[in-house]
Design a protein that fits this description.
266 residues; mainly alpha; globular
Length: 266
């Protein structure tokens, strides 16, 4: 087993475990209460970081790949990655809010707001395409540039806890117990790990990378801009600190980006 695969599997495993821990946080009352207080800030921080990594690192890399693929002299070379970015964005919209309209990242579901088991599991099923592409994003980015891979991993990791919290909340609201929460969050986390592994097997082919990276960018952009930012705006209300956490996420990205540049270049 080569070092790249070991590193990618480590990233995928840590991200998957964050899903599981996010769901299990619902059970110890003291931890749950404190986590609910900071959930909106975690969402905001993750949103800012994901937006920055998408626009500053991942999308430019996808454009470079297509520029080399079709030639810079082709004035339409930007159309291809932009169309794939849009496809990834719309694909996420389709699965999260058409196939699974009950999915709502960051939503806090109270026990008295019961939903049917079918609604909960349909939402989780729709979420699987998103979590699979979380893994694809990590693997694709790392195969372009390991530094970009680390940044994408951090972006994914930051929203995994709220994601697990959301999944666990829906399962509990459907009348299930800790065992079902653990099963659901493990399944969603395992799908991220599967995305890492599957793309590693096929992603060394330039053709695959050229298509997967911009699509994964679209998925990441959707999660940041259409899932997380509305939650930030909803929970933030008139409290500017939540909004400032988005900018802190962007600042964190540049700080880690600079630190990685110093470490990996020396």
């Amino acid at each position: 087993m080569d070092n790249t695969l070991i590193q990618l599997l480590a990233f995928g495993t840590i991200a998957a475990l964050a899903n599981v821990l996010g769901g299990l946080i619902l059970f110890p009352r003291g931890v749950q209460k404190n986590y609910k207080k900071i959930l909106k800030y975690v969402l905001a921080l993750g949103a800012g970081f994901m937006l920055a990594v998408t626009f500053i690192d991942v999308l430019p890399e996808a454009i470079k790949i297509w520029q080399k693929r079709v030639g810079a002299e082709n004035e339409n070379f930007l159309v291809y990655p932009m169309m794939l970015l849009l496809a990834g964005y719309l694909l996420t919209q389709f699965f999260e809010h058409t196939i699974a309209p009950h999915f709502h990242l960051g939503e806090e579901v109270h026990p008295d707001h019961l939903i049917s088991p079918r609604s909960a599991y349909t939402a989780i099923g729709g979420l699987l395409i998103h979590t699979f592409f979380d893994g694809v994003s990590i693997s694709a980015a790392a195969q372009v540039d390991f530094k970009v891979g680390i940044l994408v991993f951090i972006a994914v990791f930051l929203h995994k806890f709220p994601e697990g919290f959301t999944i666990g909340s829906m399962v509990l609201a459907a009348g299930k117990n800790r065992k079902e929460v653990l099963l659901a969050t493990t399944l969603v986390g395992a799908t991220t790990l599967l995305g890492v592994f599957v793309f590693y097997l096929v992603g060394d082919v330039g053709f695959t990378l050229a298509y997967a990276l911009p699509v994964a960018s679209g998925v990441t952009l959707y999660v940041a801009a259409s899932d997380l930012i509305p939650e930030v705006n909803h929970h933030g209300g008139k409290r500017p600190l939540v909004s400032f956490a988005v900018f802190a996420g962007v600042a964190l990205f540049f700080l880690i980006h600079y630190a990685l540049h110093l470490v990996l270049e020396n």
